[in-house]
Amino acid sequence: MIRLVLAEDQAMLRGALAALLALEDDIDVVAAAADGEAAWRELQRTAPDLLVTDIEMPGLTGLELAQRIQRHGLATKVVIVTTFARAGYLRRALDAGVQGYLLKDAPAEQLAAALRSVHAGGRAIDPQLALEAWSEADPLNERERQVLRLAGEGQSAGAIAAALGLSPGTVRNYLSEAIGKLGVGNRIEAYRLARQKGWL
């Protein structure tokens, strides 16, 4: 029996996925969570074989959950099911130890097959996305990504500095580096481009 935790912030989709997976004889959805922090608590409580998660969620994103699982050395394997067909997301997911990356518009039967494959030690990656993932490298480092994400949400250099424990000057330096690496004119353009590429 494959025991899994499902993390999806859209209630209707979460219910539909849970119902779909419940039809499989060898899959048991032991918990479902509406945000990343709730999913983390369920992972610790249930120690499932798999986590099936979206990328964008309140609290912790699916990528942050995968990184936390990796950092804590948990045995739970991660499968991301998302609408984001962006090579940058896939690259970051693979770096975080994710074993499955599927798109929500894939046929339903592919999901159960992918979960079985990952549970057995394999990988399940959308093939077209896998090709694209290696065509363009993410130029941002993790700190530039954090600063740019907060700037794109409208926070000032001072607010970002306070949130990340940096000086405002250091924040401005990170923003300047990110803008330069992305070849754009300002922080808003940098944020938009990085989001479009899946680097944030």
Automatic annotation (TrEMBL):
Coiled-coil regions listed in the entry: none
Keywords: DNA-binding, Phosphoprotein
Annotated ranges, domain HTH luxR-type: 133-198
InterPro entries linked to this entry: CheY-like_superfamily (IPR011006), Sig_transdc_resp-reg_C-effctor (IPR016032), Sig_transdc_resp-reg_receiver (IPR001789), Tscrpt_reg_LuxR_C (IPR000792), WalR-like (IPR039420), WH-like_DNA-bd_sf (IPR036388)
Superkingdom of origin: Bacteria
Any matching Pfam family: Response_reg
Modified residues (4-aspartylphosphate): D54
Domain Response regulatory: 3-119
Protein name according to UniProt: Response regulator
